[in-house]
Amino acid sequence: MASFQGEALQSASKPDSDCRFEPGVMVPVIDPMRCEAKGPCVPICPYDVLVIRTVTPEEKAGLPWVGRFKLLVHGGKQAFVLVPEACRGCGLCVTACPEKAITLQKLQLRR
Fold first, then answer.
1. What is the pLDDT of residues 56-85, one digit of tens each?
2. Which CATH number is 53's domain given?
3. φ and ψ at residue 56, rounded to 5 degrees
4. Distance (Å) of CA 70 to CA 2, 49, 74, 75, 95
5. What region holds the 4Fe-4S ferredoxin-type domain (predicted)?
């Protein structure tokens, strides 16, 4: 996983970078303890996979106190994966995130 992330970061830093996977193979995973909803991940994604939105009360309740405090400081918003099956693993969102809150992982198929 770590070597792929390094490759994705390297590939995504090139403006002529092509996506590495077919849709639905990779998915961005957002660490809610790191995300500050600054938002550069959203416009850089060529497939509109991510969105910044207000965290619901249910989502907020599932966070530890540090996460809830961080939400308060950052306006109660975070990045979320809106359309995971559209991700093509280009890594642009990973590179754009100033908090390093996004990683790419293989999408787990449900059986």
1. 999 999 999 998 998 999 899 999 999 998
2. 3.30.70.20
3. -70, 160
4. 27, 24, 6, 9, 22
5. 26-55, 78-107
At 109, which amino acid appears?
Answer: L
CA distance 38 to 101: 11
**Percentages (nearest 5) of helix, strand, coil residues in the chain:** 35, 20, 50
Rounded to whole angstroms, the Cα distance separating 71 from 82 reads: 19
Using 50, 70 and 90 to split pLDDT, how confident is the model at 13?
very low
Is 19 a domain residue? yes
**Chain CA centroid to CA 51, Å:** 9
On average, the pLDDT of the chain sits at: 83
